Every structure is written in C-alpha cells, then in structure tokens.
Amino acid sequence: MKKMGRTVLGLGLIALTLNGCSQPSSAGESGTKGGDNLIIGFSQHRIAGSDWYKMLIEGAKAQAEKQGVTILVTDAGGDAVQQNSDIQNMMSRGAKGIVVNALDPRGIASTVNELEKEGIPLVAVNTRLSPELEKKSYCFVAEDQLDTAASAGKELARKIAQKYSKDEKVKLAVIGGYSGESTTALRQEGFLKGFNGYFEANPGHKIEILPIRYGEWLPDKARVPVQQIATANPDLKAVFSMSDVMHAGIEQGLREAGVLDKVIIVSYDGAMALAKKMMDEPNGPLQATVSNSPYLQGATAVQMAIDAVKGNKTSCPGGARYTENVLITPENAKQFYDPNISYYYSKESLTKLQ
Asked: Which residue positions does the secretion signal occupy (predicted)?
C-alpha cells in the first residue's frame, strides 16, 4: 500500500538541527520526510545552473514521498571534498542507503569504502563510478549512455549526408562536460560509434572531427569554447552537444561567430524546450535531441536504494538499471512534446516503479 509522506524542505533543516544532528553542509541541503524511519541520502555534486539536475532531485524526492521514506538531499556545489563530507554527514544522521551523483568517479573512494564497511548500500546515478568503486555499489542508474549517444551520432551523420554533398568537407565540433569524467567519455565513445558507423555504411563523405571542447554542463561555460571554435573554423558545419543544458550557450557562441544559420546541431537530454524549438523552427539549426530522463533517473535511483536496504537482490540485475531513450526530431517533436514537464520520460516506466 502506498505510504503518504510530506515535504519539509527548508523547515526540514531546522528539524534536523533541533534533533541534535550535525549542521547542514554549506553547499546546501534539503529533505523530504516520510512516514517511517527509513532514511535515504542523496548526494548531488552540483545543482545550481542546471534544470536537468533540479529535475533529477525532483524525481528522487517524489519517489521517496511515494514510498513514505525520508530523503536527505545535499548539494556539494561542485566540490569533491564537500561531497565526501556530505555523504559522511548523512551517514551520521542515520541514512541507511546512499544515492550519489559523483563529481569525480574516483573522488569518493574513501567514503565508498566506509559505506561498505558499515553495510550501507550505495547507488550511483547519472555518473558512473570508477570500476573498482562500482564493484562496491548496489546499482548504477542512468540511460545507456553508449546506446543513447550512438543514436545521436547516427542521426547527425544522417542529417549531414542529407544536407552536404560528398565533395563538401564537413567540420564537426563536439562539446562535452568535463575532461576526464566518465559521463563525457561514454557519450563521446557512443557518439563516435553511431557517427562513424553511419559513414562506414555510407562512405565517401569528407569529415573532420575537431578536438573535443568542454562546457562543464552549463550554458555560460559552453559559450566561450564554442565561439572560439567557430571563429577559428568559419566553415564549421555541425555540432554535437552532450547536454541540452548547454544549448543556449552553444547557440550564443555560434551566433557571435556568425555561423549559427550554417550548422546542424544535435543535442542530448530530451528537453521539452528543445522539442518545442524544433516544432517552431523545423528547418533551424537544431535537428535532434535524444532523451535522458532526469526525473525518471532520480526516482529509479531512490527506489534502488530502498530495495537494497530492504534486501532485494533482484531489482538491479547485472548492477545497472537503464532508462529508455527516444530520439526527438523536427519530424516527431509534436509526438513527444509535453508542456507540463521539463524533460521527456516514460510515464509507463515511472508507474512500474514500486
């Protein structure tokens, strides 16, 4: 039977402090209080500036409330040391399971070892932990990043083949998140698999893939490197963005360089704002985004943590749970567009969570 919880958010901080718990992290913390004693901690490496991260947290809180458990949410503000401290603080507050979206896949090693020692299950969401740490976790929740990015790569290749003749050289820019992080590496690998695979099956096109640049998953951080690439390469013809969150900055950088109307952009996340943009401008630069369902990922990660605490050995087969992805284009954007959500997700998949 569904248990009803209540959201305490800002008031929850006061309640936790008055109960004798340690002070909240300086980077920020909130909570959703349920009706029983099970506490799940959710450590997010950064929230500010990203509506994707905000929806990840919203999904997590909603699932916790649905299941009647208490959730503590911390925001490390992009600080790996703070993230370790946040997790340790949640352990001291009685968290029986931890969900983490790690800033550094190896940066929480000591904390993961402590969780293992204490028998507290760990679920990684969105960002994959390093192989040695992943072995110590219960589950990894994300979209299948290789498959999702491959879908984007294949679509961009198809659009290039449609627009440009084999005699025209096509320069492609790739904008990732951070250098060295697993999410960027996996999306780049998947993208190249789909992109190169298409042209291996349809040879003859002249493609130059420029060195990857990084936008730190934020529009203002993506603008400058994109502007620099486009200025140095005025014949730029295509851009792959690893996140819809960076799209406004990417467009601005291309506009400043005077090439926005000359490029094809394919992005990653399935933002409804981008779906609407393609509906309104079907012949515009933006030609696809592939979904990445933050709300569903957050909800699924919390459910995996609850299952792990309760001893369920089967809810995360193979140590990973992947959310489905869909490719949204000008041709099908109307089918997937929903003005009531920020990012596409399968409502059927959400309903199937316990």
From this structure: 1-27
